[in-house]
Amino acid sequence: MTLVDLVERLEGLLADTGGVVVAFSGGVDSTLLAYLSLKVLGERAVAVTANLSSLAPGGLGVARQVACELGIRHRVVDYDELSEYGVAENGRDRCYYCKKGLFRRLRVVAGDFGFDVIVDGTSSSDLEEWRPGYRAALEAGVLMPYVECGVGREEIRAISRGFGLPGNEGLHAMCLSTRFPYGQRITVEGIRRVGLAEEYLRGLGLDELRVRDHGGIARIEVDPKEFGVIIDQSSDVSDHLRGLGFRYVTLDLDGFRSGSMDL
Fold this sequence. Notes:
Blueprint: H1 3-15, E1 20-23, H2 28-41, E2 45-52, H3 59-70, E3 73-79, H4 94-113, E4 117-119, H5 133-139, H6 145-149, H7 153-163, H8 188-202, E5 209-214, E6 217-222, H9 227-232, H10 234-243, E7 248-251
Helix pairs in contact: 1-2, 2-7, 4-5
């Protein structure tokens, strides 16, 4: 099936809803979904971003900027996911409880607009990974167009490039709860520390990176080709992260790996 065929299937599925609330982070997946929803539904499409406790610094600004560029109606709702059962405890099903509460909140927003449908940017590629939030979406009756149409991560990026959409990979909007190993309690202070550490490292010119928090030990993941950036400024990096509250600062020799906490 060609990319044109996939776009036609997605647009047809969205058009049949009559109106949608798009769960919107400003990342590539939700941006394309918002773009297509706006294209076929116009004012009957609303992007909704949750202002999470675990949202990275600048994440909300990214979502607002992208929504403005698209021209889609945009609403921000506060959502303290750490108060939801099972989230702060950080078990392997943390994402299930977080998404369960989020979709409950989005259902209220959808009702305010008179819509019955919430759409989410889960892709067919995501189903190959550990995604407990997928179960929450199924239980909440959330429509996942990419899954329904068999659209994977690479197709989403190719279609997005074809439409000239913003290429933000969602790094700034990524949920920072993923930076903590399962079983380690997540706190607002821990999230703040990790977020500020990653913001600092991006300021050094690093692109793909994570700062994992192992009980106060910072484990920095970057592309091996960028190890020199960290090593050449090791004293400054260590001092800065220690100033944020980390006791030790380490560089992971395996490099950047998205989802490494799930391994």
